[in-house]
Amino acid sequence: MTTSFMKVFGSGMLGDATAASRRYQRRSMWAAALFAVIMFGLGGIKYEIPASKYLAALTPGLVFLYICMEFRRYMSSMDEMLRRIHLESIAWTYLTALVVAMFLGGIGGVLHWNINPMWVIFLEPVRALWLYATARRY
Amino acid sequence: MLDIMSRMLYSAFMPIESASDDGSRWSVRSMLTCGSLGENNAAARRYYRRSMAALPVLALCMAAASYVPGGRYVMAIAPGLFFLYIAVEFRRYMFAQDELARRIHFESIAMTYLTALAVAGAVGWLYAIARRY
After folding, report:
1. pTM of the entire structure?
2. What is the complex's ipTM, to 2 decimals?
3. Is B110 exposed, middle or buried (0-12, 13-18, 19+ CB in 10 A)?
4. What is the nearest CA distance from A93 to chain B, expressed in angstroms?
């Protein structure tokens, strides 16, 4: 399978121009934009509205949950080959994450770091790299 | 309708070990306790044996490092190295599985990854807000 590195790394997808992939991209972008508007908006008013703290606490989880559900739907619509490549890249990302988490946990424990779980989002570029590496094998 | 009800009742009350006999060749106990499909092939045995052997090595390293000057660096790196070894072994084990077992593993890991992203998003922001107050 011929894939452009920049295309895979930039989008975390294999550039399949199907209706499902476009829907996934469109909905994820809308969700990310909504997330940014809510969080910057709440930051702008400095959480002065009473319930704004709770809204800020819940929004990231809900947005990610929505994006994950969309990704799952997108995966279900793929053909067998694409799904296999995606599943394999996610599996290797998961193993990479376990190893990195253990390194960070060990070093952080000794050096008294407080590591925010939000950093997990940086696994997405790692997944894109694995996606590229896996796609080159097929 | 009766058939569906009887299946539901059977699923609800059957012993956990016999669940694997109901149309599936995978062991429920193995899935829930080891996180594996309970394959009894050479690759699976090698993976379990090596992972289990690595565990006491890690425990010994951590225990020994606490008595040695400068051992904190060993304590910092040992868990990462241990998991790196297990990850490499798991990868080798996955490549030795048949297509169906590999597919089931991949799918379960993919769902775990998505769950982790959603949970980390929620917990991470809670953590950030909690640290501010």
Report:
1. 0.73
2. 0.72
3. buried
4. 8
